[in-house]
Specification:
The protein has a 4-stranded antiparallel beta sheet, covered by helices on one side. A two-stranded antiparallel ribbon has the order 4-5. The termini are far apart. 22% of the residues are buried. The chain is built from 2 helices and 6 strands. The chain has 90 residues and is α+β, with helices and mostly antiparallel strands.
């Protein structure tokens, strides 16, 4: 299951999230989303957990959990919507 983690402090790392979520089960990946120009965290991340029951337990346990002074928002990630290029076809 892909999990969205929002309201992160800018100092949170992939390793921080991996350690926190692994207390609930196996973690495939934990990725803090970084701004491609500044290299700074955008304040959210995605964590992938292969076992759905463990992922649901992590969501229940970690939603509103404080991390580095901020309460995380944790829920199942929604599928990404297709974005248009903004160009019209001729």
């Amino acid at each position: 299951m892909n999990i969205y983690v929002g309201n992160l402090a800018y100092g949170v790392t992939d390793a921080d999230l991996h350690g926190l979520f692994s207390a609930s089960g196996d973690v495939s990946t934990a990725s803090v989303i970084m701004d491609k120009f500044s290299g700074q965290s955008k304040g959210f991340a995605f964590v992938e957990m292969p076992n759905n029951s463990q992922a649901l337990a992590a969501i229940k346990t970690l939603n509103e959990h404080p991390l580095q002074g901020r309460n995380m928002r944790v829920n199942e990630a929604k599928p990404r919507e297709a974005r248009s290029s903004g160009r019209s076809a001729y």
